[in-house]
Amino acid sequence: MADEQISLPSLILIVVIGGLVVRYLFFSSPSPASQQQPRDAASAARTREAAVERIQQMFPQLDRRTILWDLQRTGGSISATTERVLSGRIETPPVTFQPPSPPRTPANAASATTRSQQQKPAIPKSTEPDLITRYNLQSRINDSPASAENGGSVDAKGKAWSSNRDERQSALQRRRDEMIIAARRKMEAKIAAERAGAGSQ
Amino acid sequence: MAPNSRKTIAYTEDDLLQWEALIQGPEGTPFEGGIFPAELKFPKDYPLAPPTMKFLGEIFHPNVYPSGLVCISILHPPGDDPNHYEHASERWSPIQSVEKILISVMSMLAEPNDESPANVEAAKMWRDRRAEYEQKVRDGVRRMLGL
């Protein structure tokens, strides 16, 4: 009798646990899965693209396909892939590897346009201030070489390391300006010579 | 600050941790005749840590980032390279000097190292279409001089 009393609660417990397990395995899992499947795919694609973008920012030399292949192998871990790239263990993906295509969402298109907008100013930026405008040398470009030589002698005087800080500074600046102007003159002469050569031919 | 050779000068006394230098393009290279201003920034713990160097104007070179930042081994922190590209002796150490950096930059201009390019486009062009690369560099040099 005592045996029965002990086994009855445990029996109930077993039945309840068994019921929960059965419910978990057969009833609960299909319904959320059917809801989560598409959302999971979308969010997985989003995290994947974010990971690819982050790695591509760090290593612009890698192509998307290589990154995706490695991310797949490391289970989508950015740090693991970064580690592998840095240690040179990244492999080229096999020909059979088909990378998932980048999602064409409006957000993506928008970021693409902002990127191209960012790139556009970058090109004029590279052609920005030349040395003449940078150091305000416009007035001195057309000085005759004689006056430049004159300046040179002043420079020679100032070349002895002056104890005055401002004097030192201006001597160095003068040297800088002269260096630029001399280089410009030389280049002008070279271009003129090239033109003359092209003209005579 | 100390003008160390006719090829390069560094100046600016306002801030001892920030120098400006002019680098003359080495002869016999497409950079010949060009003048390139650059900025050297020294960290607080110099000379234990290396300075950084950044070109202030446009320069198209495989080892210079599009931002102008120079990528050469002497400017890399001391110790062994985690990628095993460079020997510890090539990297920064407190016995290096600004003069050596400028000399290294000059030789970098003459001989790009395409093993670890900073500007991939420039490295590709240097490797595959050398004539086009040299023309582009020459055009850049002239633009810098306002011609």
From TrEMBL, chain A:
<dbReference type="InterPro" id="IPR009060">
    <property type="entry name" value="UBA-like_sf"/>
</dbReference>
<feature type="compositionally biased region" description="Polar residues">
    <location>
        <begin position="108"/>
        <end position="120"/>
    </location>
</feature>
<keyword id="KW-0812">Transmembrane</keyword>
<dbReference type="Pfam" id="PF02845">
    <property type="entry name" value="CUE"/>
</dbReference>
<feature type="compositionally biased region" description="Basic and acidic residues">
    <location>
        <begin position="164"/>
        <end position="179"/>
    </location>
</feature>
<feature type="compositionally biased region" description="Pro residues">
    <location>
        <begin position="96"/>
        <end position="105"/>
    </location>
</feature>
<feature type="transmembrane region" description="Helical">
    <location>
        <begin position="6"/>
        <end position="26"/>
    </location>
</feature>
<keyword id="KW-1133">Transmembrane helix</keyword>
<dbReference type="InterPro" id="IPR003892">
    <property type="entry name" value="CUE"/>
</dbReference>
<feature type="region of interest" description="Disordered">
    <location>
        <begin position="80"/>
        <end position="179"/>
    </location>
</feature>
<feature type="domain" description="CUE">
    <location>
        <begin position="47"/>
        <end position="90"/>
    </location>
</feature>
<keyword id="KW-0472">Membrane</keyword>
<protein>
    <submittedName>
        <fullName>Coupling of ubiquitin conjugation to ER degradation 1</fullName>
    </submittedName>
</protein>
<feature type="compositionally biased region" description="Polar residues">
    <location>
        <begin position="135"/>
        <end position="147"/>
    </location>
</feature>
From TrEMBL, chain B:
<dbReference type="InterPro" id="IPR000608">
    <property type="entry name" value="UBC"/>
</dbReference>
<feature type="domain" description="UBC core">
    <location>
        <begin position="1"/>
        <end position="146"/>
    </location>
</feature>
<dbReference type="InterPro" id="IPR016135">
    <property type="entry name" value="UBQ-conjugating_enzyme/RWD"/>
</dbReference>
<feature type="active site" description="Glycyl thioester intermediate">
    <location>
        <position position="71"/>
    </location>
</feature>
<keyword id="KW-0808">Transferase</keyword>
<keyword id="KW-0547">Nucleotide-binding</keyword>
<dbReference type="InterPro" id="IPR023313">
    <property type="entry name" value="UBQ-conjugating_AS"/>
</dbReference>
<protein>
    <recommendedName>
        <fullName>Ubiquitin-conjugating enzyme E2 2</fullName>
    </recommendedName>
</protein>
<dbReference type="InterPro" id="IPR050113">
    <property type="entry name" value="Ub_conjugating_enzyme"/>
</dbReference>
<comment type="similarity">
    <text>Belongs to the ubiquitin-conjugating enzyme family.</text>
</comment>
<keyword id="KW-0067">ATP-binding</keyword>
<keyword id="KW-0833">Ubl conjugation pathway</keyword>
<dbReference type="Pfam" id="PF00179">
    <property type="entry name" value="UQ_con"/>
</dbReference>
